[in-house]
Amino acid sequence: MPSESETIELSDDELRDIAGYAAACADRVLPVFERSLRNPPADPRPSDAIEAAYAFAAGERRTGALRQAAWAAYRAAQEASVPAAADAARAASHAAAAAYLHPKASAHQVKHILGAAAHATRAEELASGDRPRVATETLEWARLHAPAAVTAVLRRLPAAPPGGGRVGELLRDLDAALRAGLRP
After folding, report:
1. Dist. CA 57–CA 12, nearest whole Å
2. Mean pLDDT of 1-28
3. Which residue among 3, 40, 87, 108 is buried most deeply as judged by most CB within 10 Å?
């Protein structure tokens, strides 16, 4: 395993696959965010971030607009009054931010790869009333839908870092399952 000061190989195709995966994870819980809004029209920031991540995954350039979409979704999460909606918006923010994964051998980079999946899982868990089975099913979906690039890049990095509360726990569970090729 490389040290945190080293770099890893990271191709543009892998980066695009990771961003597409993160977008798909966030897209699953976008309705959780949208249902939480009191006054239509809906806040477009999480949706815009997901669309930007999909566009990057499809071959568009990584631009400042993509980074701005990630930050805008993050601000939507901070403004959300419903915890499940906040995690859904964070998933969208992580989806757009996945395009900015760095080729550093840092455990922090695991959050760029799996952050959208972990926040999406927490959003679904909260929306269900904290039923543990929901988290298990969502993590299983995330594991089954992860492209080969996700697992390949994870295996070049140290394991997910400690901390992060429930989302950190979900992140570590998914990270371990993907690395081992097991069910979370």
Report:
1. 10
2. 88
3. 87
**pTM above threshold 0.70:** yes
Q: Rounded to the nearest 5 degrees, what angle is found at the Cα of 127, between the Cα atoms of 56 and 91?
A: 20
Neighbours of 180 (CB within 10 A): 10
Cα separation of 105 and 56, whole Å? 23
Give the three-class secondary structure for 7: strand
User: In the chain, at which residue ranges do the beta strands (DSSP E only) sit?
Assistant: none
Q: How far apart are CA 113 and CA 99, in angstroms?
A: 9
- 176 CB-side CA count, 13 A: 10
> Residue 4 CB: number of other CB atoms within 10 A?
13
Percent of the chain predicted with pLDDT > 70: 93
Q: Are 33 and 85 in contact (CB under 8 A)?
A: yes
The domain ranges of the chain are 12-180
Q: What is the DSSP letter of 157?
A: S
130 vs 24 pLDDT, higher one: 24
Q: Which whole-number Å values give the CA distances from 29 to 11, 89, 182, in the listed order?
A: 28, 9, 24
Q: What is the pLDDT of residue 6?
A: 87
pLDDT tens-digit profile of 55-75? 999 999 999 999 999 999 999
What letter would DSSP give residue 158? Answer: P
CA pair distance 146, 110, nearest whole angstrom: 14
